[in-house]
From TrEMBL:
GO molecular function, one term: peptidase activity
Primary site of residence: membrane
Cofactor(s) required, per the database record: Zn(2+)
Ligase among keywords: no
InterPro entries in alphabetical order: Metallopeptidase_M50B (IPR052348), Rip2-like (IPR044537)
Name of this protein: Site-2 protease family protein
PANTHER family: ZINC METALLOPROTEASE MJ0611-RELATED, ZINC METALLOPROTEASE YWHC-RELATED
Location within or outside the cell: Cell membrane
Residue ranges of the TM segments: 16-35, 42-61, 90-115, 127-150, 162-185, 206-228
Family, per entry: Belongs to the peptidase M50B family.
Keywords: Cell membrane, Hydrolase, Membrane, Metal-binding, Metalloprotease, Protease, Transmembrane, Transmembrane helix, Zinc
Membrane topology, record value: Multi-pass membrane protein
Native source organism of the sequence: Streptomyces tunisiensis
GO terms (BP aspect): proteolysis
Length: 264
């Protein structure tokens, strides 16, 4: 177990993250102004980079909360720099979630930062560390949907509106999936400290397969329908209509051609 304290350089924001953030800003501007020759490409790059930014912030929230909870090792591991290349499983944390967005428009939870739980004292702290990530997705969803529930869409270009709606859908799906009390997901991490030692030992072997189990369930049409009805209900309460998210996903997958209804 490392005893390295967090140094100032361990908290310096990574150029990798700043680069991703810059791509999000530039492509967001291109989507807003219609500068891009192919609007769908701008939407794809904007949503993808913004989605990766949210994944970085998700993992940062876990690490930062763990730091304040007593795990000073997270700094030396690079988790406070927002650099996705420092995560325990870069493939699971970034590549796989992006692929799932492309395949089905689902904000799949990513891999993890490794928290030395032995350094954390108190069940509430353990639960808060697990909850911090998906709560970041909730906050991101609130920000993305703000123009909709505030009625501030006048003058917002359709392409940017659709992109925001689709990005909000990703955040809502990520938050819901992450909060499921399934071993391996953050929702289980929230309740795990409150379970008996015997129950935790019985459940532990299934943790590596929890995400695969959820993914398999989402391929069942009836389960998928219930899940997206729930997502649509949340988005509707926040002022986003299904046509907004549909057109956002349609523009995002620009290589398949754009629906005439969503033409911008």
């Amino acid at each position: 177990m490392t005893t390295t304290a967090t140094r100032p350089g361990d908290r310096r924001v990574s150029p990798v993250f700043l680069g991703i953030l810059a791509v999000s800003g530039v492509t967001g501007w291109a989507t807003w102004t219609g500068f891009a020759a192919v609007p769908g490409l701008a939407v794809f790059l904007f949503v993808t980079s913004a989605w990766i930014v949210s994944l970085c912030l998700h993992e940062y929230a876990h690490a930062r909360t763990a730091l304040h909870g007593g795990d000073i090792s997270v700094g030396a591991k690079g988790y406070l720099t927002l650099n996705p290349m420092k995560y325990t499983h870069a493939l699971l944390s970034i590549v796989l979630p992006v692929l799932f967005v492309i395949m089905g428009g689902i904000g799949l939870p990513g891999g993890a930062v490794f928290i030395e739980r032995g350094r954390i004292r108190g069940r509430w702290r353990h639960s808060l560390i697990s909850a911090a990530g998906p709560l970041t997705n909730v906050l991101f969803a609130v920000i993305c949907t703000a123009p909709f529930w505030l009625g501030a869409l006048d003058g917002v270009p359709p392409a940017f509106r659709f992109a925001l709606a689709f990005l909000a859908l990703l955040q809502v799906t990520a938050a819901i999936l992450n909060f499921l009390p399934v071993p391996g997901l953050d929702g289980y991490g929230v309740i795990e400290p409150w379970l008996s030692h015997g129950v935790r030992r019985q459940v532990e072997p299934f943790a590596p397969f929890g995400l695969l189990f959820v993914f398999a369930l989402l391929w069942v049409p009836s389960v998928n329908g219930v899940f997206f009805d729930m997502v649509d209900g949340v988005l509707s309460a926040l002022g986003i209509e299904e046509i907004d998210t549909y057109c956002g996903f349609d523009l995002f997958r620009f290589w398949q051609g754009t629906d005439e209804y969503c033409g911008v």
